[in-house]
Amino acid sequence: MLLGLTWKLWINLMGFNLIWALSIFIGNDALLWIAVLLLLHFVFVAKSWIELPIVLVVALVGYSVDYILTIAGVFRFEQAQGITPVWLFFLWIGFCSTLRYSLHFFSEKYRIASIAGAIAGCVTYFSAAHFGAVELPLAPVISAAILAGVWALLFPALLWISHTMSQYLSKHICL
């Protein structure tokens, strides 16, 4: 155990950070490697039949928010074939695979999650913009305000959906 996290939680956190780096620096060319990392998560996680639908539903919610922000002009993806690049959805799956594991600390601590989401959301998107994975065409203060507001609501919402689905599926799926 290191800093209160088991080695499995550290692997989960490091796996997501690797997915983030592959997505941001390599983009769609890294999809095979990202898919392998996600597959490993679902192979080694306990009760993957519960984890998979939770991660996919929550990732779809998060991706939808990014899609709306892209259409609204908050984000611009130059290398995208459509509105958003494929790697963005895979990145959302990777992020959502941390909600019940390395980010479980925030589960049911929605005020703390809101503050953490506002800060980490801004830092993450500005980092991605710095490395050229996304453009933030609005003034930096406007982008920061929008991202902080969105993530102050989105992160606790994703945690709540994940927690609620986990409880429901654990009670109703007997495998």
Give your account of this protein's structure.
This protein has helices at 7-25, 31-44, 48-71, 86-96, 110-130, 140-172. The relative contact order is 0.15. It is globular and about 50 Å long. It has 175 residues and is an all-alpha fold. Helix 2 packs parallel to helix 4, helix 3 (48-71) crosses helix 4 (86-96) and helix 5 (110-130) packs across helix 6 (140-172). The two termini are 30 Å apart.
Number of helices: 6
Low-confidence stretches: none
Distance between the termini: 30 Å
Overall residue-averaged pLDDT value: 92
| The number of domains | 1
Strand content: under 5%
Radius of gyration: 16 Å
Structural class: mainly alpha
Give, in order, the helices and strands.
Answer: HHHHHH
Shape estimate = globular
Major sheet summary line: none
Secondary structure layout plus pairing:
Elements: H1 7-25, H2 31-44, H3 48-71, H4 86-96, H5 110-130, H6 140-172
Helix pairs in contact: 1-2, 1-4, 2-4, 3-4, 3-6, 5-6
Question: What is the gist of this entry?
Answer:
With 175 residues, the chain is an all-alpha fold. It has 6 helices and no strands.
Which characteristics define this entry?
membrane, 6 helices, 175 residues, mainly alpha, DUF2878, transmembrane helix, DUF2878 domain-containing protein
